[in-house]
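hey m, so remember when u said the tokens were messed up on ur end? i reran from scratch. heres the input so u can diff it against urs
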Amino acid sequence: MLPVANTLHRHGFNVLTYDLRGCGRSGGEVTFGAREQTDLRSVVDYAVGRPDVDPARIGALGFSTGAATTVIAAAADPRLKAGLCDSGWAPVGAWVRRRR
């Protein structure tokens, strides 16, 4: 995601990146959007508290699980004014098997 973040920044956007739970340097387990949406809302909480951020101009960009997380969070959080979702998925039950 850093090349995408760098491109956005070069074009005048303020960018904040983070690792989804269970990814990169982030702890926790991947929950396919169940808890990740709360994580994204926490990131928005942080962003709106910054003096250099216009709270009326916050959006989110996500790929795959990040895309699904963006859709779920944006539907519940009116502070997210835009969402760009790439390669998100529909019902996760169609491709995830339960462990025995």
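this time it looks ok to me. Helices lie at 2-10, 36-48, 65-76. if urs says something different then somethings off w ur setup not the seq
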